[in-house]
Amino acid sequence: MGKSTRSTQETREDTPLEQFSNCHAGIVSHLHAFGELSALLGPAARARQIAEDMLASAFRGEEQDRVRTMVEQLVAQHRAIESQWTRLEPELRKVAKGQASALDADAVQHLVRQYQGHAAFEEREFLPLAHAILGRNSNHMAALGLSLHMRHAPPIMAHI
User: Fold this and answer.
1) Residue 35's closest CA among 96, 79, 87?
2) How many CB atoms lie within 10 A of CB 68?
3) Which one-letter DSSP state was computed for residue 13?
């Protein structure tokens, strides 16, 4: 009789199937956030362009060598992140659709850690140096500001 009372008192959220479903909802929510990573890969191309501009503005010698080394490191990191994303994406799509998946959780965590390290390096090392170098020429900084603004501007619809 105790079992019968328990089952009538159980809320829908307490059932094993609902708990399992809630787990899926949480995972899918996190994967959607993780899926935003692919949108960040486009700006990576812009970062490479900024780096090239920065090389042209850097002082010859030690500063230019430092920039070149950073750019090579960042490009290699972008390539590695893009490659890992390409391998994970098909399984992530399955998970997002609620399909069975062989998603490698360790590979996901590796990608997350790698991207976090990459972003931290850009923020801590590359961007301050880029600001110092590009700031020497107001035209370069203005062009950068405009390109960043335009990247986030909504598309303009032409009137017919």
Assistant:
1) 96
2) 14
3) G
72 burial level (CB within 10 Å; 0-12, 13-18, 19+): exposed
| 53: nearest Cα among 133, 118, 124 | 133
Q: Is the pTM of this model over 0.90?
A: no
CA proximity to 118, closest of 90, 81, 147: 81
The two tokens of residue 26 are 């949480």
Summarize the confidence of residues 102-127 as an average pLDDT. Answer: 89
The answer to whether 103 and 95 are in contact (CB under 8 A) is yes
Is 41 within 8 Å of 25 (Cβ atoms)? no
In DSSP notation, 87-100 reads HHHHHHHHHHTT--
Q: 93 CB contacts (<8 Å, ≥6 apart)?
A: none
Rounded to 5 degrees, φ, ψ at 136 are -70, -20
- The single-letter code of the amino acid at 124 is R
Token duo for residue 150: 């335009």
Whether the Cβ atoms of residue 30 and residue 96 lie closer than 8 Å to each other: no
pLDDT tens for 26-82 read 666 666 677 766 666 676 677 667 767 767 778 889 988 998 899 899 889 989 988
